[in-house]
Design brief:
By secondary structure, the chain is mostly helical. Helices cover 59% and strands 0% of the residues. It is globular and about 30 Å long. The two termini are 19 Å apart. 2% of the residues are buried.
């Protein structure tokens, strides 16, 4: 998925997605949940705390 498509799904700018990707900023807990929902995974999976996707 492109940064643009993800940004649209999350209602944020592409530059916000870019800052998350390079580690310049970190999403808050609500945004983490939205990102996990977009990709159909658990927040724990997204954070690397489990190998179970859902």
């Amino acid at each position: 998925m492109t940064q643009e498509k993800l940004a649209k799904k999350l209602n944020v700018s592409t530059s916000t997605i870019g800052t998350y990707e390079i580690g310049r900023s970190k999403p808050d807990i609500e945004m983490l949940q939205k990102i996990a929902d977009v990709f159909g995974v658990s927040m724990e999976y997204l954070l690397g705390k489990t190998e179970v996707r859902t």
